[in-house]
Design goal:
Elements (H helix, E strand, L loop, with lengths): L1 E2 L10 E4 L7 E5 L2 E7 L5 E4 L2 E3 L6 E4 L5 E5 L5 E7 L1 H4 L2 H10 L4 E2 L5 H20 L4 H28 L6 H17 L6 H8 L3 H12 L3 H17 L6 H7 L5 H12 L3 H14 L7
Parallel strand pairs: 1-3
Antiparallel strand pairs: 2-9, 3-8, 4-7, 4-9, 5-6, 5-8, 7-10
């Protein structure tokens, strides 16, 4: 497994690619999301161990820090954008929804033609806006990324609403979950508990646990651990901090637990991650430039 470091040629945190895309690319991961529009049949991707074979017009979604691999891409077979995870994680709505948005990796044109077409058009609009070199072009392009994220988020929430039913999925219950996720992120470096979060949003611990599991498909401890791992990723890039310091400053009380959960979620140890980051700084970039 390799970590790919994206070099942005035009705008910081956002790239569009259509030329020079390799036919194959080994397993790798990066902190950016990658949304791919298939232009031809015959594409094949592997994401977190699962194989996806999009047809022309389909959209493949790779979320930040997911291990993925290009198994086969025909010449001129795809276009894609990559954008910083910060665009998602700095927004409480999207950050709260990310854990079930990230279950979606393939939007099929045959099943959802309007959605797939809108995403494709927005991806190309990002390219057009970038190439025209307008004033505030970077801001305009990032607004388009948010439009794509909103389309995907609304699509996933609609599906989740249908699967959960009105008893658990309502505007009120979503507000509880959004507030809870924001509170957890804000206090993740502290010794917080499920009962504390439930009390803050005004629910019983039992009902909050049931509601939280239904929405996020994760237990409270697992969700909190995932937030702390993301905290640690940011800290590990500061080589003046020891790995032990990164563990404790991100909210973990044990380096053993930290190492175990980090490897489970990211696919490499914290030390390996830091080594990859150091190598990237020395080499001044990754495998290809967008």
């Amino acid at each position: 497994m390799e970590r790919e470091i994206i070099k942005y040629r035009h705008f910081h945190g956002l790239a569009f690619a259509e030329n020079g895309i390799p036919k194959e690319f080994p397993p790798h991961w990066h902190n950016e999301a990658e949304f791919i529009v298939a232009l031809k049949n015959g594409c094949k991707y592997k994401i977190d161990g699962n194989i996806y074979e999009p047809k022309a017009g389909d959209v493949v979604l790779v979320w930040p820090r997911e291990l993925h691999e290009l198994l086969c891409v025909p010449p001129d077979g795809v276009v894609f954008i990559q954008f910083s995870s910060y665009l998602i994680e700095s927004n409480s709505d999207l950050s709260a929804a990310l854990h079930f948005m990230s279950d979606c990796h393939l939007i099929r044109q045959k099943e959802n033609p309007e959605l797939a077409e809108k995403i494709r058009d927005l991806v190309y609009k990002i390219k057009e806006t970038r190439d025209r070199e307008l004033f505030f072009a970077e801001s305009r392009c990032k607004i388009l990324v948010y439009e794509i994220l909103l389309l995907v988020g609304e699509f996933i929430l609609k599906e989740r609403r249908q699967s959960l039913g009105p008893e658990y999925f309502s505007d009120k219950s979503w507000e509880y979950i959004r507030f809870a996720c924001s509170y957890i992120a804000e206090h993740s470096k502290e010794d917080i508990s499920q009962s504390e979060v439930a009390d803050k949003i005004g629910l019983s611990q039992y009902y909050f646990s049931k509601l939280f599991n239904e929405y996020t498909k994760m237990s409270f401890p697992s969700y909190l651990a995932s937030i702390r791992v993301q905290n640690a990723i940011n800290l590990l890039e500061n080589e003046r901090l020891s790995i032990t310091d990164c563990a404790y400053e991100s909210g973990f009380q044990s380096t053993t637990t930290f190492n175990k959960l980090f490897h489970e979620q990211i696919g490499c140890s914290p030390r390996e991650y830091r080594k990859l980051h150091s190598q990237n700084k020395e080499e001044k970039g990754g495998k290809y430039e967008l």
